[in-house]
Amino acid sequence: MAVFTVGERDFLLDGEPVRLLSGALHYFRVHEGQWGHRLAMLRAMGLNCVETYVPWNLHEPEPGRYRDVGALGRFLDAAAAAGLWAIVRPGPYICAEWENGGLPHWLTGRLGRQVRTEDPEYLDRVDRWFAALLPQVVERQVDRGGPVLMVQAENEYGSYGSDAAYLRHVAGLLESCGVTVPLFTSDGPEDHMLTGGSVPGVLATVNFGSGAREAFAVLRRHQPAGPLMCMEFWCGWFAHWGERPAGREAADAAAALAEVLECGASVNVYMAHGGTNFAGWAGANRAGALHDGRLEPTVTSYDYDAPIDEAGRPTEKFWAFRSVLERFRGEGAGPLPELPPPPPRLAAKDGPLRAVVREWVPLPEVLEVLGDEEWDGPVPPSFEELGVDRGLVRYRLRVPGPRQPYPLTVTGLRDRAVVYVDGVLAGVLAGAGARDEAVLPEPVAGPAEVELWVESLGRVNYGPRLGEAKGIADGVRHERQYLHGVRARALRLDAFTPEAVEKVPFAPVPDRGGDVGGGAGGGGAERGAPGLYRAAVEIGGDGVPGDAWLELPGWVRGFVWVNGFCLGRYWETGPQSALFVPGPVLVADRNEVWVLELEGAGAAVRLTG
Questions:
Q1: What is the pLDDT of residues 172-192, one digit of tens each?
Q2: From the CB of residue 377, how many other CB atoms can be counted at a distance below 10 Å?
Q3: Which among 51, 232, 451, 572 is annotated as catalytic?
Q4: Global pTM?
Q5: What does the pLDDT look like over 24-41, one tens digit per residue?
Q6: In the beta sheet, which residues pair with residue 88?
Q7: Looking at 51, 97, 156, 551, which residue is catalytic?
């Protein structure tokens, strides 16, 4: 047992000053079979602590139905076994470039702007969630012999709101649930953020990527006493689809880290290891200083240009940080641990393993087997009204006739729609502008049957448009007239289980007269139709295969599974061109791959080490 407290200038462990050298590693972005290795890598870099968020929406997909809440406890046990302390940031909002900032879609869809306030219904749901989650944190606190040193109350609230009563409620709730270790908040080092996000009597910390002395000076204006800590030292950045990834030179990041530690502060490196946004859980942002511009969906990789890369291997930044951290470990700390053995990589003596897709099912037939019941009403329902978190919805409506051709406009389109008119592909639309509006390239005459297959590219995780609805949030117009009478049917990512997919009526892939995927753009061959494709990758040799990367040359956009494990979204727009496949997902013989293609299919997939 030990006592961890907040002193006048330092963190204190059993009354002795201690500096926290922490690294962010999210248990939900790393395959559980690889937690031990990643935690050992943190120790080898020179860290003594690990920090993790907790995504509410991952663990409570429907009100009162909990899913693997115990994963957090298992991760904290793994951290203790690795010799690390732990910092837990349970939210309820986490940002983290995660779908909806971690808030459940069923809650934001109902309450809208009332979330993250003192609204009674919102607080009731938070109370219930924390009551389910926190016992495993409480029993692993340092004063009970566990690794947990601190727990965060909300997250970067000063970037969002100013409801002080709500923040006090969250802090009081944590304490009433049995949290006895110190609480803290974290915000940007700006006056309005610290004013809006701080709670009297709760340690305030700041988040930044450079300029430590200036940031801590701002913090000291608001908090004259207490230890200094950068709770998020941004050593890299995340990437959006269709944009160049942002990187940071190792030397520059290491110098900024050294400045934090020269101030006598503690630090949490964000991210020490980023991992992967498996299963379509990546969030999105809105462009512009006011976060009200175009949607910017986050890619599947959360590598973050971190010192430990997506596959768990040390980078140049790792060695630069290790050198800095070694200088600030304190007297008597001894040498840093050696690196753990690297995870095995897939080894194929003949190079990449290539598998031609030989079976498929058209998208409408996939929907018939795996889709929800069809909804019928006068206006298009949002994803939230249909109870859908990740996936797509087919909207069907009719243009009356006879009438001459007019523009077909979708307003409130979130986020991307493949449109068919009388069964023929008419265009691919993306919401744009303040109204998320899109117009079909060619006018439509009536009568006509229109189908719109709408996909969410990830809910906004930061800023004033947090919790905005997905799907068609307004309506479909022909000329200026709204088209009423809509049928909608959802296809959820969670529906793709091995048992369910086994019921899908696969058939041979039609001959396309060429090898799609042989080069950029498919080498000129015609792409296959949208649908669910199935292939098998044979891995020879003995033992369990190692980590791999899955490439989809010639495919456009969709999701992919290996042995029932959803790797996440792929999209030819880049910058990500391959998806990380954790070694524990693969088996030594036949590996089944499903590809849900929404625009145009390639002919093969490739697995590389």
A1: 999 999 999 999 999 999 999
A2: 12
A3: 232
A4: 0.96
A5: 999 999 999 999 999 999
A6: 52, 151
A7: 156
